Amino acid sequence: MAPLFDGLRYSTLAGYEWAHPRVLLLLPAVPLLFLLREALAQRWRGKLAVAFVRGQVRGHWSALLRFIPDLVLALSLAFGILALARPQRTDERIEQSGLGIDIVLAVDVSASMELGDLLPNRLEAAKRVARDFVRGRRGDRIGLVAFAGEAYSVLPLTTDYELLDDELSNLRLGMVPADGTAIGTALGVATNRLRDSPGRSHVCILLSDGENTAGNLAPLTAAQLAHAFGLKLYTIGLGRDGTVPYGKDELGRPRFVETQLDETTMRQLAAAAEGQFFRATDARALQRIFQRIDRLEKSEVRQTRYRNTHDYYRYYLYWALAMWLLWLGLKNTFLTNALED
């Protein structure tokens, strides 16, 4: 019996979308019609004086039965109004089509990334901007490589951007035991991740602040190998050349060190893999660089929406007809005053 009366619950009624919601404004008019009819009947009804015996005539509960036909008729009208308002529910399904871009972020986590010319330091600035870049992608698979003296694949290509955001946050200085900067090895690991991926475009974004000082694979050879597998390489040189702050000494005074980026090699790597080289001397410039790469490598993912609308007016129309037939039946019983009707 529960499904029969399920549509009468408040939660069910509140969950509908109404095709003609203004029709529902007629619901308060239903009891007003019966009050108006009663008022007119009182005015025009003929009066017959009857002499009662001495004392008060007691009322009986059976006198309330005469209101049953009116109640049934009111329910019939109310259900009819609900049916006219056309209750509906809409199911929406979204399908994405189009092949995204496969991207690998190769991030330098060597000791020099602790330098403070990019606040709070080079690594934290790179992580923050990279996370913003990831949040702006839609439908692309993105992987993560961390490198210092060696290179490791931290995360394979994935569309789980929350997991990628967590892994970017977890990048830290010293997570790769071997110190140094193995740019060629990092490019080799990134190429290995991207070479067999099904994306329509393969991109590697390399962030480093130094020159190649470790690894067995020459950076230029690695870039040429990446190009042979169809990879496009964007290289980003982090930090300023010259004297930059590097923590504090034992007396709390700021320390300074000399640093130099091998910009020539970074430009050659980008040119060998049909990409571009960018120099980021502060956090704002680094953010603009990622915004530019985002515009250059925009994937086209199309969304198709399917809407399926179900009508539920028949349920209330059947109730209205049932109540109407019941009212017609009650008109021929003792519950109806034939003199008034």
Automatic annotation (TrEMBL):
InterPro entries: UPF0353/GerABKA_families, VWF_A, vWFA_dom_sf
Keyword Membrane: yes
A Pfam family hit: VWA
Presence of keyword Cell inner membrane: no
Keyword annotations from UniProtKB, A to Z: Cell membrane, Membrane, Transmembrane, Transmembrane helix
The protein's name: VWA domain-containing protein
Organism: Hymenobacter busanensis
Lineage: Bacteria, Pseudomonadati, Bacteroidota, Cytophagia, Cytophagales
